[in-house]
Amino acid sequence: MSPKRVGFVEAVKLYFYNYSNFSGRSTESEFWWVVLFNMLVSIPLCIIDGIVYSVTDSFIFTYIPSGLWTLVNLVPGLSLYARRLHDTGHSALWLVISVLLPVGAVFLTFYHPLLSILVWIAVLAVNIAIFIFLILPSAPKNQWGEPAENAGNENKNGILYGENKETAAAVINNSVTNSQWIEVSEGSGPKNGIVYGESNDDAGGSMTQSSLPDDE
User: Fold this and answer.
1) What is the pLDDT of residue 149?
2) Is 182 helix (H, G, I), strand (E, B) or coil?
3) What is the CA radius of gyration of the chain?
4) Other beta carbons within 10 Å of 177
5) Minimal CA–CA distance to 213: which of 182, 190, 189?
6) How far is CA 207 from CA 100, 118, 182, 199, in A?
7) What pLDDT score was predicted for residue 2?
8) Given strand 194-196, what is the order of strands in its sheet?
């Protein structure tokens, strides 16, 4: 399934639909909407945990509601993290490293305490790196597939912003109707790769139709 910009409801649907899909890509919107969804679910579960503890006075039963939710989210959560890393151009092996390092650190605590401290520092560094990767925008086409349509671009008043000039030209060409023209070309004109032109006869078909208002 191709990655795409989604809203809250569709992001949650894709989250469970791609339950065990560790290939492909997931956009920022798909990832962060699910993060918000899990936070919203966790709040009432924590309240329920407190109620269970107050009734049973036992830690054995206290975390059953939140524990079950954690188990339900284990596989789809890991797969979503993997796809988000793929979308930013990074391997899901970072997740494997982030899991194995703490295990090694705990093991070393009993045999080489000093070395375990160094491993815990490495754990922190790896998790910081993963967080940075997760907040990065979608990367161009890579071994995990194409980026989301119009990723990194925003269409405002017929202008498509971003670095992907070919995508910008194609979208503008398909979405406008009047007779004014702009040129989307590499290394030309103002910022965002957009130059206002007067003709659509330039070589390479770089002039595309736009709905931009007249310059005054």
Assistant:
1) 65
2) strand
3) 24
4) 8
5) 182
6) 53, 58, 6, 7
7) 52
8) 194-196, 180-184, 207-210
Cα–Cα nearest to 88, from 11, 14, 22, 143: 143
Does pLDDT of 4 surpass 80? no
Q: Which structure tokens are listed for 122?
A: 């490495």
pLDDT digits (tens, 9 = 90+) for 50-108: 888 888 777 777 788 888 999 999 999 999 999 999 999 999 999 999 999 999 999 88
Residue 153 banded pLDDT, cuts 50, 70, 90 = very low
Tokens at 183, concatenated: 């040129």
By C-alpha distance, which of 205, 207, 182 is closest to 195? 182
- DSSP code per residue over 25-70: ---HHHHHHHHHHHHHHHHHHHHHHHHHHHHH--HHHHTHHHHHHH
Residue 25 has pLDDT above 80, yes or no: yes
Residues 6+ apart with CB under 8 A from 104: 119
Helices and strands of the chain, counted as H and E runs = 7, 5
User: Residue 163's pLDDT is what?
Assistant: 42
Residues 109, 116: contact at Cβ < 8 Å?
Answer: yes
- Are 71 and 63 contacting, i.e. CB atoms less than 8 angstroms apart? no
For residues 183 and 205, give the distance between their C-alpha atoms in angstroms, rounded to a whole number: 9
79 closest CA partner among 17, 123, 146, 126: 17
Tokens in use for 119? 């491993």
- Are 31 and 55 within 8 A, CB to CB? no
